[in-house]
């Protein structure tokens, strides 16, 4: 929890309580339904919570922003971002229902009311959002096919909507088909070695 306060020192009391509660809740639920690998659960704040919040270092979501988290698994990056942005609406989607049960239980326990979950493949979701976030679901070319048409067209400013995808490693090959892609290195924001190769990939509204 100290790790979160190190990089986000201005959290409200509610946010601090919500973040602090995650460790016990995820440990409890992960023993029943595996959503986080066994070795990662001891480093929940580093590998999952802070990693998810890398997106909050890149974009400040305005009030009432709608955000889809594709393939959210146990709620990453959606749950930490929903705590960070309580005035935004988060839709967390995954094709495995039991993982969503964990998210619903966690959100209920910490009274996180700006999250809804849907059991579905994302391709079948017929809504639009200001932003789409995701981590570790599939390669970008397939991902952008899945979410095409799901980004709201009301704002044509790439900083006000688009895709924010958490990704590591050398992405040259995977991203070569996109003309306007930005990569933000998370090591520019977080000093822990874990973030050395981690990035937030930003694709604007329009991509090929
Ligand atoms: C490796 S896990 C990552 C989970 C989470 N995003 C994280 O970083 O901890 C990938 C997740 O994507 C989900 N998934 C894969 N393809 C999907 C699709 N087409 N629509 C919705 N969810 C999908 C899987 O069920 C799985 O929970």
From TrEMBL:
Sequence positions that bind S-adenosyl-L-methionine: 71, 76, 122-123, 135
Keyword check for Transcription regulation: no
SUPFAM superfamilies reported in the protein's UniProt record: S-adenosyl-L-methionine-dependent methyltransferases (SSF53335)
CDD domains in the cross-refs: AdoMet_MTases
Gene3D superfamilies, A to Z: Vaccinia Virus protein VP39
Keywords on record: Cytoplasm, Methyltransferase, rRNA processing, S-adenosyl-L-methionine, Transferase
Purpose of the protein: Specifically methylates the N7 position of a guanine in 16S rRNA.
Protein name: Ribosomal RNA small subunit methyltransferase G
Organismal lineage: Bacteria, Pseudomonadati, Bacteroidota, Flavobacteriia, Flavobacteriales
Gene (UniProt): rsmG
């Amino acid at each position: 929890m100290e790790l979160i306060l190190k990089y986000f020192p201005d959290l409200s009391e509610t946010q601090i309580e919500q973040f602090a509660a995650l460790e016990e809740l995820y440990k409890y639920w992960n023993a029943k339904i595996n959503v986080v690998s066994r070795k990662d659960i001891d480093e929940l704040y580093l590998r999952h919570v802070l990693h998810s919040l890398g997106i909050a270092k890149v974009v400040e979501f305005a009030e009432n922003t709608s955000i889809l988290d594709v393939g959210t698994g146990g709620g990453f990056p959606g749950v930490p971002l929903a705590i960070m942005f309580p005035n935004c609406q988060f839709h967390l989607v995954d094709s495995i229902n039991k993982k969503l049960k964990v998210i619903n239980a966690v959100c209920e326990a910490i009274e996180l009311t700006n999250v809804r979950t849907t059991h579905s493949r994302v391709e079948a979701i017929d809504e639009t959002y200001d932003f789409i976030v995701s981590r570790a679901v599939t390669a970008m070319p397939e991902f952008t096919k899945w979410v095409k048409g799901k980004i709201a067209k009301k704002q044509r400013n790439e900083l006000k909507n688009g895709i924010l995808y958490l990704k590591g490693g050398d992405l040259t090959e995977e991203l070569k088909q996109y003309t306007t892609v930005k990569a933000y290195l998370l090591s520019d924001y977080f000093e822990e070695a874990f973030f050395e190769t981690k990035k937030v990939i930003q694709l604007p509204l329009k991509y090929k």
